[in-house]
Amino acid sequence: MNCKEFQECACEIVDKRLSDERTQELLRHANVCPHCRYELQALQTVKTVLHEKVHRKSVPAELYYTIVNRAMSESGTSWFQKLFGIKLNPAIAVVVLAAVLVGAYSLLFPVASIADESNIINQSLENYQAVIGGSIKPQLVSNHDEVRSFLQKEVNFSVNVPKMKNCKSCAGVLSIFKGVKLAHVVYEMEGNIIYIYQANLDDVMKGDKIGLPENVKVALEDNKWYIEETNNKTVVLWQYKNTLCAAVSKLKKDHLVALLTE
After folding, report:
1. Does the pLDDT value for residue 100 go beyond 80?
2. What are the tens digits of pLDDT across the range 17-47?
């Protein structure tokens, strides 16, 4: 673990988008690195203050991740330096950032309402864009069987890793959202990215922490499948044993469904 790797994941720690294991690994680094620890504390303080003071509005996922990726990419310098071009004392930076982000918070932290942030379709579209932009990084890149075994050990539902022809790489990522364990599978093939979000079907249908619009639930109960095309992307939802799967890609729906059921 080094400072560059920690800084690339600092926002994900604050937003609780990483698995417990990955979070603990990063926090162990922060415990022995004063600079990274102060940076994490600054992020947490700013987010807390802004959550209390600022009325938030949603923005399109693509805009959000464009901003994040440009802010976090290119070099190993800290995000303080990327914003201001100089090294800042973290305590001072908290105050400065709070003033700057009051106007920009709705862009940098696009969480609108509980319903929006818990909607699996919205999450899947945002996660797809995060994969494209590099904000979500694979925890394991291997063959289909090893990725499935890696994910299956940590979740309470049947992980689905379809074996696709002409697949250049297959990757797995684990995360937790509001205490719900999630599995994510990413394929690269024929110049396209296919992202699959997976969760326990019971958690989805209860809708306490993650869920779907009622019309989508009805379609899944009747047909076991739901497909929609939005913003040049195809979203395919289906049931696999006790699992809800949501795939996102720029492939046309017929092509994507054919790959998923190959």
Report:
1. no
2. 788 888 888 888 888 887 888 788 888 877 7
pLDDT at 114: 39
CA distance 245 to 66: 26
pLDDT digits (tens, 9 = 90+) for 178-217: 899 999 999 998 789 999 999 999 999 999 899 999 999 9
User: Residues 260, 238: contact at Cβ < 8 Å?
Assistant: yes
Could you tell me which residues come within 8 angstroms of residue 161 by beta carbon, excluding any fewer than 6 positions away?
144, 145, 147, 148, 151, 170, 172, 185
Query: Taking the CA atoms of the chain, what radius of gyration do you get in angstroms?
Result: 19
Six-digit token pair at 141?
Answer: 């890149």
Q: What distance in Å separates the CA atoms of residue 183 and residue 174, rounded to the nearest whole number?
A: 5
**251-257 contact pairs (CB < 8 A, 24+):** 251/192, 251/194, 253/227, 253/229, 256/194, 257/225, 257/227
DSSP secondary structure of 140-167 = EEE-HHHHHHHHHTT-SS-------TTE
The whole model's pTM is what?
0.60
Which is higher by pLDDT, 66 or 223? 223
Torsion sign across C-alpha atoms 79, 178, 59, 257: positive
User: What does the block give as tokens for 98?
Assistant: 């709070």
Q: Go through the domains of the chain in sequence order and give each one's CATH number.
A: 3-111 (no CATH), 115-260 (3.30.200.100)
Q: Looking at the predicted structure, is the pLDDT value of residue 104 above 50?
A: no
Q: For residue 174, what are the CA distances in angstroms to 22, 110, 171?
A: 9, 22, 11
| Alpha carbon distance 32, 210 (integer Å) | 35
Cβ(50)–Cβ(105) below 8 Å: yes
